[in-house]
Design goal:
five-stranded antiparallel sheet; single chain; about 30% strand
């Protein structure tokens, strides 16, 4: 198990380093929860898919964010670009949540395959999470400027309950 964690950590760090060198205007750093989720998936025999999903999402989200910044889109367009990009890059098999990083919210998400803090010049940091199910309660301002999501869900005000695809 220890060697798997080392390999996964090396892949995640390598992905962040490569994308950071190629696209310096943006940053996506996989959070520790991603490593734990990937390690848990590895124990179930799906490590290759989880690693590929994380690497692919990191690379593609950096491209999407850079394109949004280059087009000087407003913050709503920026959030929408990340939500849609992550959803389609994850094969339309997972739910996606993008929420302003310093927002007051609670999240209970299961089977997280990607969890990163994303930032770009001129935009506040956002948390991007790709997962299979769970619930999010946004205790701050809503709207596309501050959060967005896509997938299979029921919404009641600022509470969103996601289910598996």
């Amino acid at each position: 198990m220890r060697s798997i964690r080392k390999q996964l950590t090396a892949v995640l760090i390598g992905a962040a380093a490569v994308t950071g060198l190629v696209l310096p205007a943006t940053t996506a750093v996989a959070a520790p929860a991603t490593t734990a989720s990937v390690a848990a998936s590895a124990a179930k025999g799906v490590k290759v898919e989880a690693i590929n999903t994380t690497l692919k999402l990191t690379t593609q989200l950096n491209r999407i964010i850079t394109n949004a910044v280059d087009r000087h889109e407003n913050r709503e367009g920026y959030v929408k670009s990340i939500v849609l990009g992550a959803f389609y890059e994850a094969g339309q098999r997972y739910n996606v949540l993008v929420i302003k990083y310093r927002h007051k919210y609670t999240a209970n998400l299961q089977n997280v395959v990607y969890d990163a803090k994303v930032s770009a010049d001129g935009y506040p940091a956002f948390r991007v999470v790709v997962f299979s199910s769970g619930q999010v309660v946004n205790n701050s301002d809503g709207g596309w400027e501050n959060w967005g999501f896509k997938g299979w869900f029921d919404r009641n005000g600022n509470t969103v309950t996601f289910r598996q695809s």
